[in-house]
Amino acid sequence: MRLPIAFVSSTLVLLSALRVSAHIGPGFAMPESRDVVHHHLRSRGTNGRLMLRAAPSSESQESSEQDPSQECKPYGLKSSSALGKVYPKAGQIADIVSGDDTGATLFKEILDSGIIPGNVQVKKGTQGNMGIDQGQSDSYDDSDPDCWWTATGCTSPKHKQLSHDLDSCPEPNTWGLSFDDGPNCSHNAFYDFLQKEKLRATLFYIGTNVIDWPLQAQRGLTDGHDICVHTWSHHYTTTLSTSQVFSELYYTMRIIKDVIGVTPRCWRPPYGDVDDRVRAIATALGLRTIVWDHDTDDWNIVPGGKQSTAKIESNYQKIIDAGKNGSTADKGIMVLTHELTNQTMDMFMNEYSKVKAAYKNLVPISACMNASSPYVEDQPTYSNFADFTSGKVDAQGLPQPDAIKINVNSKLNITSEKDQKSAGGFSSASAKKSKTQGDSSSSSPDSQASAAPNSNKSSDKEDGNSASFTPIHVLSISMTAALVSFASWAL
Ligand SMILES: *[C@@H]1O[C@H](CO)[C@@H](O)[C@H](O)[C@H]1NC(C)=O
Ligand SMILES: *[C@@H]1O[C@H](CO)[C@@H](O)[C@H](O)[C@H]1NC(C)=O
Ligand SMILES: *[C@@H]1O[C@H](CO)[C@@H](O)[C@H](O)[C@H]1NC(C)=O
Ligand SMILES: *[C@@H]1O[C@H](CO)[C@@H](O)[C@H](O)[C@H]1NC(C)=O
Ligand SMILES: *[C@@H]1O[C@H](CO)[C@@H](O)[C@H](O)[C@H]1NC(C)=O
Ligand SMILES: *[C@@H]1O[C@H](CO)[C@@H](O)[C@H](O)[C@H]1NC(C)=O
Ligand SMILES: [Zn+2]
């Protein structure tokens, strides 16, 4: 089958500037190095006075830093070296860490449970699994037996026990707000802006970034956003072995639990690349799969990407227009935007007044889905849609910024997504409900307002092609040592 999406065709460029250590993330550049860190003085302007300070050791210290280059200076915490020993290497495809009996046992239990379909092929990757092989996709069966999103935009699994992916915000005139690829080290100006505007978002965090920038990750929670998993190393998950997919999800859940103190119940596949094998592993880990139905393509903005600022603005404008012309009057949207770079964050800040004028509500996905209890833990709790839109944007039971203790090797309490009966999560209970309501569970790929005019296939591709199938370039990120990878795509 010839797919109407872009496939990797050429180069992978690794720019290894910025960071020295290729094997240890910036968070570990100075393990056990409080002494060293204390000598590592940084300047910071406060009311016009120049102040010197040590590298941050608390969330509130880090959050008050206003200079992006200071924010992105590596720092070590007391816990850093201990964390480094029990996690996969930052930026590399995760697999079960040797000596991790808990992880190995959980993996075996999942295999033994039989939830993982045996007839879904591992897809062939290219360029270190930062792309999908064209031949693989050409030969993929038209009937889409794997519900492979990358090929067809499929969101309704073909295999049993798997929930429909969340791809839209059901509430009318509503923009489901989420930002992928964080925590970005230099996100303070952006998070300050979200605070000022009383905006809360769903943040899809990359495990490697959490381990590299633990204090920035804590801020996501303490600011009242809700946190979901975006894999350990941001590769095409359908190309990874079953133990790698397990590890990409499991270790990201665990680092979020260790560093932020909560266990997410939601994840988003990088590039949207998911099929029923991957969904099954996520389901077993208690994670609901979330994709999107409108794409700003902001990841591709210059200078990291290839699209002009004007082009990304026009992508935003189309989505803004959809809010104005009545096409979201029955059903809202879920928009793909990124915390990836200064430019993607600036873009949202610049577009926000127009977005706000066009949409009645801007809410995190938790509010879209009434997921008032988005974590395995009872606390914190978040507002449902009605409460959120009546002004109660603050989550309840959030930790104080500096009260979060990093725990190495927290125990996760894993309940399969299909068994998460209790209300308030992202669980299949709501999927079943929307199925019976027939609002978003058609077995054909979703045809949303943003779908390409001549196709019922995937049009919204994270870090991939958008509505127009012209050759573009893909920016992928490998966080180890802040490597930036560019994969070149063509039709
Ligand atoms: C509304 O605007 C969107 C985005 O420009 C467009 O795709 C859609 O067709 C428009 N719908 C109507 C009813 O005009
Ligand atoms: C964050 O944003 C800065 C500025 O655009 C960029 O240099 C950096 O690579 C980004 N990524 C992370 C993980 O912080
Ligand atoms: C982007 O960088 C500029 C220049 O350093 C800075 O003024 C601006 O606040 C940054 N934007 C964000 C969202 O961090
Ligand atoms: C959320 O709750 C409201 C009632 O407050 C209901 O109308 C809406 O359908 C619910 N949304 C979902 C996705 O269950
Ligand atoms: C684990 O979670 C389940 C529900 O998801 C709960 O019933 C059980 O008490 C939890 N176990 C622990 C040890 O917290
Ligand atoms: C949608 O996909 C189906 C199955 O691949 C195909 O038969 C049909 O022609 C497609 N429709 C459009 C409008 O492309
Ligand atoms: Zn991503």
TrEMBL record:
Sequence ranges of Low complexity compositional bias: 56-71, 422-431, 439-456
Top-level taxon: Eukaryota
Locations listed in the record: Cell membrane; Secreted, Cell wall
Cofactor(s) needed: Co(2+)
Record Gene3D superfamilies: Glycoside hydrolase/deacetylase (3.20.20.370)
GO annotation (BP), single: polysaccharide catabolic process
EC number(s) reported in the record: 3.5.1.41
UniProt feature coiled coil, ranges: none
Ranges where the record places region Disordered: 54-75, 417-468
Signal sequence annotation: 1-22
Assigned GO CC terms: plasma membrane; side of membrane
Major site of localization recorded for this protein: membrane
One Gene Ontology term of the molecular function aspect: chitin deacetylase activity
CDD domains reported in the protein's UniProt record: CE4_MrCDA_like
Keyword set, alphabetical order: Carbohydrate metabolism, Cell membrane, Cell wall, Cell wall biogenesis/degradation, Chitin degradation, Cobalt, Glycoprotein, GPI-anchor, Hydrolase, Lipoprotein, Membrane, Metal-binding, Polysaccharide degradation, Secreted, Signal
Domain annotation NodB homology: ranges: 173-363
Enzyme class: hydrolase
Membrane topology note: Lipid-anchor; GPI-anchor
Catalytic activity: [(1->4)-N-acetyl-beta-D-glucosaminyl](n) + n H2O = chitosan + n acetate
Membership in a protein family: Belongs to the polysaccharide deacetylase family.
UniProt xrefs under PANTHER family: CHITIN DEACETYLASE (PTHR10587:SF98), GLYCOSYL TRANSFERASE-RELATED (PTHR10587)
Name of the protein this chain belongs to: chitin deacetylase
